[in-house]
Hints:
Helix content: 40-55%
Number of helices: 13
Radius of gyration: 21 Å
Oligomer: single chain
Shape: globular
Number of strands: 15
Low-confidence stretches: none
CATH class of the largest domain: Alpha Beta
Strand content: 5-15%
Number of domains: 2
Mean pLDDT: 97
Distance between the termini: 47 Å
Amino acid sequence: MKYDFDTCVDRINTNSLKWDVRDNELPMWVADMDFQTAPEIRDEIIKRAEHGVFGYSVVSDEWYNAYSDWWRVRHGLIIEKESLIFCTGVVPAISSMVRKLTTPAEKVLIQTPVYNIFFNSILNNGREVIESPLLYDGREYRVDFSDLEKKLSDPQTTLMILCNPHNPVGKIWDRKTLGKIGELCKMYGVTVISDEIHCDITDPGRNYIPFASVNDTCREISATCFAPTKAFNLAGIQTAAVFVSNAFLRHKVCRGMNTDEVAEPNAFAVGAAVAAFTRGGDWLDELRAYLYQNKIITSEFLLSELNEVKLVPSEATYLLWLDCSAFTDDSDKLARFIRENTGLYLSSGSVYGSNGKSFLRLNIACPRDRLTDGLKRLNSGIKKYIDRSL
């Protein structure tokens, strides 16, 4: 491989949210990779830093072209310049749109188990969460269209937040599923926010389908959130975009983000994104291959050493969804026990919705040595937990 993903970078004492932990703890929870970003991006950031002047920044034509070319070539989505809005992050954009596109006490639909911050963006803004739980057959997840239509038909439901690909279950939604979601939302006057931040972290040979690319209906009723931050490990740079084709909807989204002051770039945000989408492709493809091997290693380990835990098959993200229903229905208690007894810090499935209470989420975006350490701790912690429960 051209790029190095095996070196363990010491992130202690770097003001890292992920690594602000106790001695001997191993954090494998938040969606933050332990790899240095692509050298092509680091070079751009160093070049900008060496300039030494950090005044107000503007969004350049290169930024628009980088997004447009990447999504056209990689994902088959045509993006017009006027349809793209810079923002400081996907979560700030979602929260802003919740405020602008709904009124207090209206309902915002999410499909659980799902990214836990969706709950925050809804509840913190005085709106009501309405859950449409995904169906789980013990192996994979699918949309419960009967339940979805029932809840979309409620006149108080005015917005849906779609996760595509889906975090935490790693599902790439197919064109038929996305089209049916769009059809139902159009029928009941529901706007869709499609969070597609994980779209570039797919298994080799697999691609995701942008919601807005499915048909004219999906394109016209939606606002799509993009960013290089998950794929290139740039969350701290605060750089993202919202794509809104419908001019009327775009005006409202743009006004909301400007009112909330989340539409202006810092000195590094534009250049880092341009470097990622114009020079980071080879690095990303090697990363995807490395992550896929980590997924295989994890799957084989669980089958041979810890068959009490079932890995839910996934096609995207570096976040693995572990089914622990064979021995617990309290993931909070389980995650806390594992951390206290082994130092392994995982995400409890319950934070992603009530139907996640028997699951754990494991972040495998780390060098192999660190992954091996994490899996050994997981095995030890769960075996102790089961023995203690007997």
